[in-house]
Amino acid sequence: MALLLxxxxxxxxxxxxxxxxxxxxxxxxxxxxxxxxxxxxxxxxEDVHFRRGWTGWRDLGYKAAAVNLxxxxxxxxEPTALFxxxxxxxxxxxxxxxxxxxxxxxxxxxxxxxxxxxxxxVSVAVTAVGNSERVPGRGGALPGDVLVVTGPLGAAAAGLWxxxxxxxxxxxxxxxxxxxxLRLAEGKRLAAxxxxxxxxSDGLVIDAGHIADQSSCAVEIDVELVPxxxxxxxxxxxxxxxxxxxxxxxxxxxxxxxxxxxLPVIGRCLPGSGARLLLxxxxxxxxxxxxxxxxxx
Amino acid sequence: MALLLxxxxxxxxxxxxxxxxxxxxxxxxxxxxxxxxxxxxxxxxEDVHFRRGWTGWRDLGYKAAAVNLxxxxxxxxEPTALFxxxxxxxxxxxxxxxxxxxxxxxxxxxxxxxxxxxxxxVSVAVTAVGNSERVPGRGGALPGDVLVVTGPLGAAAAGLWxxxxxxxxxxxxxxxxxxxxLRLAEGKRLAAxxxxxxxxSDGLVIDAGHIADQSSCAVEIDVELVPxxxxxxxxxxxxxxxxxxxxxxxxxxxxxxxxxxxLPVIGRCLPGSGARLLLxxxxxxxxxxxxxxxxxx
Lengths: 297, 297
Prior knowledge:
The structure is a homodimer of 297-residue chains.
Chain A: H1 5-19, E1 31-32, E2 37-45, H2 57-74, E3 77-88, H3 94-105, E4 111-118, E5 123-132, E6 146-149, H4 155-165, H5 171-178, H6 184-191, E7 196-199, H7 204-215, E8 218-222, E9 249-253, H8 255-261, E10 265-270, E11 274-279, E12 282-284
Parallel strand pairs in A: 3-4, 8-11
Antiparallel strand pairs in A: 1-2, 2-5, 3-5, 6-9, 6-10, 7-9, 8-10, 11-12
Helix pairs in contact in A: 2-3, 2-6, 4-5
């Protein structure tokens, strides 16, 4: 019987493409094209990554830029240009599209080209181009390294959780869902010394797992050490800070380098394989996010 | 009343975005990012640019790569990488997606990254990156220049015309619709001497109009001089060779340079404005292609 994308999941599809040599690393990784040129591409699609009622058009544009700039930040890059393919229904208002592009331009990286196509739903596919003096990648973490994170986790997932339930009084969390942080300055600073770096998009364990897998080491993260947004403790879902969409950076570096960075240490690399969360030394269960198999698609 | 994309058309939307400084030239133009780096982005969407029954999955991938490589060819560039955002329904088969990526890889430019997202219909958004020693652009044509074209026109539009009518026995034309030519070598050769160059995607008059507008000159094309695919004369629609989708290159250069190129001269630049077709010295009417307002969307 024919295998469907739904059964395979997004990561399963990417593995199929990569194992056949049909695509380089797809997803959050950047491609390094030589001479410090780095390129990444990420798309936001209606009813998969956003809903019209929950994300304004300007926020949508901002977020589409920000999630790509986050990948460049994880590569220690200075962004130079965005290329945007907007898919939109023919009955969408011009005003909405202008808001999307206003949001795309807000982080200050110019939209230098792209395309627009008619489609049944809205999606914003962005390719971001930048330059980096040193791309840490994901494969250089060493046993003995510590892991640092650039900010508190959980606000974005909590904001989505709040929207799904129609709660009010959590504007700060909803704003975090709509407008990821830009960590370009932190990314450049970390890239100079980090052995490995990723941005936290899919979820803490999944993203830390990329470092573990590609560095052939184990990654342990202490739940107590992870900085969590203060307001998520008001909500009932305790694992919100593991859900991803934070777009903070996670870097592996020596303890001495971490001290100089003044960022919270949340875990360590050691011999072995896989990434895991520990609470009081015991395994702690959490989950990430997968396309094609769930979440409104 | 709110203005809708349908009323504005694709080019109207692009004008709105560009005039507000919200986007650089979108569409077929490339962005020149310095140090010879050129980037372009173009998408193919289901029921706008292709139909599943008329274009196989592998052909779709090939064409998505080829239309972008065509923009790089018009910039005299050597392509280095493609970035692909595939939108696809969750019930699409893996085998179909593998065919799309096989087609994308066929021209020999590696897919170095991208993203996949769940959507109701299939679209393939490609960003192509390359290097060029000299980008002619569209604005340098001079009165006295002649126009050359790299191949016969009309086969692709005729192929679509044939598919729309369910005719058989025109496989050569259908193949031209499904698989545009790659003119990278010609593009590099022309870029060394051309004053202006475009690829013929939207239609001969529209694309020649880009040179006329941006070079502040008039462009005249002699209908008798345009090389037309021999088989289109078997079909009843005489204007098929003006419809676009040929992905041949149109370049403005001196008559002496054109002689050395051994390519057919089809027209000239002269003082004035606008692009027009002439048949026996008289104006000849033709039309191009516009998204959001027509054609299956």
